[in-house]
Automatic annotation (TrEMBL):
Entry keyword set: Membrane, Transmembrane, Transmembrane helix
GO cellular component, one term: plasma membrane
Record's protein name: Putative transmembrane-associated alkaline phosphatase protein
Family annotation (InterPro entries): DedA_domain
Species assigned in the record: Rhizobium etli (strain CIAT 652)
Keyword Membrane: yes
Segments traversing the membrane: 20-43, 55-78, 138-160, 175-196
Length: 198
């Protein structure tokens, strides 16, 4: 199923309505969808590099709005909607681990939001729902989401405009891994500090 979703998402890049689909995918990725918006963003930006920053802006705005939807699902409809979504994607156990670790410690959740926005670690939908469940301040959440998602899409746009197709393999395979490793280390250090500093 994941492969079919991936292939379908890739096929949207060639359509005239690609920008609309980019906004839709970026929105639902942040709340309920499994395939990242990068899958659509990369071929679009490579095909029309002069529009890469425009695409980055569209993806950022839609992703932040989707994050707000994820926050609302966690805050207002956790049992009815958010939990079934997490269970469908086999993310419920991961979610419960983070929930038990974080409780109401916003600073750790902020860190997770930034690393998730930059490197999909953990998946962005898990973090947005978690932010709603623990009642994270919505204004702080929105600002953090704008910074994290904006930084990711603008970095991708800059890399693709500067280096073009040759950088694509690095972006798809290595960039996420590099940022992910750094993010995992940062999250682990922060959690360890919180647990043992008191």
């Amino acid at each position: 199923m994941l492969r079919r979703l991936y292939d379908w998402t890739m096929s949207l890049a060639a359509r005239k309505s690609a920008e609309v689909w980019l906004a839709v995918i970026a929105f639902v990725e942040s709340s309920v969808f499994l395939v990242p918006a990068d899958v659509l963003f990369l071929p679009m930006a490579l095909a029309k590099p002069e529009r890469s920053y425009r695409y980055a802006l569209i993806a950022t705005v839609a992703s932040v709005l989707g994050g707000i939807a994820g926050w609302a699902l966690g805050h207002y409809a956790y049992e009815a909607v958010a939990r079934p979504v997490l269970e469908f994607y086999n993310k419920f156990e991961d979610f419960e681990q983070w929930r038990n670790t974080i409780h109401d410690q916003w600073e750790i959740l902020l860190l997770l939001l930034v690393t998730s926005g930059l490197a999909h670690l953990p998946p962005i939908k898990v973090v947005t729902i978690l932010a709603g469940v623990i009642n994270m301040n919505l204004g702080v959440f929105i600002i953090s989401a704008v910074v994290a998602r904006g930084a990711r899409f603008l970095l991708l746009a800059w890399l693709l405009r500067r280096y073009g197709e040759p950088i694509r393999h690095f972006v798809e395979k290595r960039l996420g891994q590099i940022v992910g490793v750094g993010a995992a280390a940062l999250i682990s250090l922060t959690i360890a500090y919180k647990l043992f500093a008191h």
